[in-house]
Amino acid sequence: MMHLPDAFLQAPIAHRGLHDENAQRAENSRAAILAAVERGYSVEIDLQLSSDGHAIVFHDYTLDRMTGQTGFVNRLSATDLSAITLNNSGGETLPSLIEILDLIDGKAPLLIELKDQDGQMGARVGRLERATAKALKAYQSSFRFTNGQPRTRSSSRPCHRSLYRRRMAHVAGRNPRPVARHP
Length: 183
Description:
Blueprint: E1 13-15, H1 30-38, E2 42-49, E3 55-57, H2 78-81, H3 97-104, E4 110-114, H4 127-136, E5 143-146, H5 161-172
Parallel strand pairs: 1-2, 2-4, 4-5
Antiparallel strand pairs: 2-3
Helix pairs in contact: 1-3
């Protein structure tokens, strides 16, 4: 069992922010994240990679469920993604990781899940990690990475958590431990 630092255990962790369609707060939206921060919660977000190499705060691989658009997130630029409106959000668009880091600004612990970019942690692994590390370089507050079942580049077997931790620590230049597991 993995353990979280005390900062993450003082209050609930808002999974994808404190989202509520009735309140026009879509998951992983600025409003959902801000609502969680205002209540003193830790925040968990998901990251996808734009076609031009930016970390975008969005759970799904496709736009279909959460927007009025169709298609894959990783086939659009950050500029194009930033113009797409989230459903049930009061007009909000997809945020970048940098925007969310500025919004949280150290007011809440942050859990970051990097979404596998090819379904087997294969050929496209590394670009999202590098984009995330670049965005986090100046971020001085508490964050940790979550991981589902990370896989090695050369096989479909789950990789050992310490290998994933070392890889992310190397990429991020810090010690961001994986802290939670998603089914």
